[in-house]
Specification:
alpha/beta, eight-stranded parallel β-sheet, two-stranded antiparallel sheet, 10 helices, globular, oxidoreductase
């Protein structure tokens, strides 16, 4: 584990002084809770650690934190960066710390490295709307950090207006923001704002609609066999998904590719030995059309 890894992942400096690896293994399998979970995420995390991943991204709602915890057994704690997220059911200020403690029990950890508010809109367990102001939730996050249960705190699916409101109220600046980012949805204004505020941006769904098996019928191009992308990939002896991930890295973001396949897990981290040209980046930029795989995502919320 780690010793045999041929890839060294660089790190980003966060605004709170800590460092975050520039790529993470994503662990969300979807919301199909009718199926009894197996140990496939546990195995994926083990493969990822062997391949050189030093950052694992998970969340309470994924229902697999226990698998991540089992995979991390025996790994020196300081060697791996773990991100988890507060689900919508726990937005009350006094619910944040107990929710994080529950995640920590599942993960078998004393702390996470980064804890994010998963979305800005709270719900109750019966899915009715929880009107708790996310400023209250954020104060609960600050308390969790003070208790040492997380080293850094951040947001997920928040927009610029929401972040500005946190800062205008004199509260601690988020260390990171996690949002959907891929070739079709590059969110340049939000990324630029976060860069101006020294807030790290993490990119979920980094492959977008590249794969035919995952793409909706109305999803715009490109696909994994796009001739232009194939040509760039061949130039660097890489795959098209690797080019997509490299582009997100060069935008200064932290991609979170997920896979349960050993070879793809290994490929997804092997993106730090080449650089795209300006012309190639401009070509990749041209695929940005604002198409979201999750159109209800929260950057459009007030």
């Amino acid at each position: 584990m780690f010793q045999n890894a041929s890839v060294q992942v660089p790190k980003l400096k966060l605004n709170d002084g800590r460092e975050m690896p520039a790529l993470a293994l994503g662990t969300w399998l979807g919301f199909n809770y009718e199926v009894e979970p197996s140990n496939e995420v546990e195995q994926a995390v083990r493969w990822a650690l062997d391949a050189g991943y030093t950052h694992i991204d998970t969340a309470w709602i994924y229902k697999i934190e226990d698998q991540v915890g089992r995979a991390l057994k025996g790994v020196p704690r300081e060697k791996v960066f773990v991100t988890s997220k507060l689900w919508n059911f726990f937005h009350a200020r006094d619910a944040v710390v107990p929710a994080l403690r529950e995640s920590l029990r599942s993960l078998q950890l004393d702390y996470v490295d980064l804890y994010l508010i998963h979305t800005p809109i709270g719900q109750f367990a019966n899915f009715s709307h929880d009107t708790t102001d996310y400023l209250e939730t954020w104060q609960g996050m600050i308390e969790a950090k003070k208790l040492g249960l997380t080293k850094s705190i951040g947001l997920s699916n928040f927009n610029q207006t929401m972040i500005e409101r946190i800062l205008e109220n004199g509260l601690e600046k988020p260390a990171a923001l996690q949002v959907e980012l891929n070739l079709n949805l590059q969110q340049p204004d939000l990324v630029a704002y976060c860069k101006s505020q020294n807030i790290a941006v993490m990119a979920y769904t980094p492959f977008g609609s590249l794969f035919y098996s995952k793409a909706a019928p109305d999803a715009p191009p490109p696909r994994v066999d796009d001739p232009v992308l194939v040509k760039i990939a061949e130039k660097y002896n890489k795959t098209v998904p690797q080019i997509a991930l490299r582009y997100l890295v060069e935008l200064g973001t932290v991609p979170l590719p997920k896979s349960l396949t050993k070879s793809r897990i290994e490929q997804n981290i092997d993106i730090f030995d080449f650089q795209l040209t300006d012309d190639e980046k401009n070509l990749l930029k041209s695929f940005d059309n604002g198409y979201s795989i999750y159109p209800s995502s929260t950057w459009d919320w007030p």
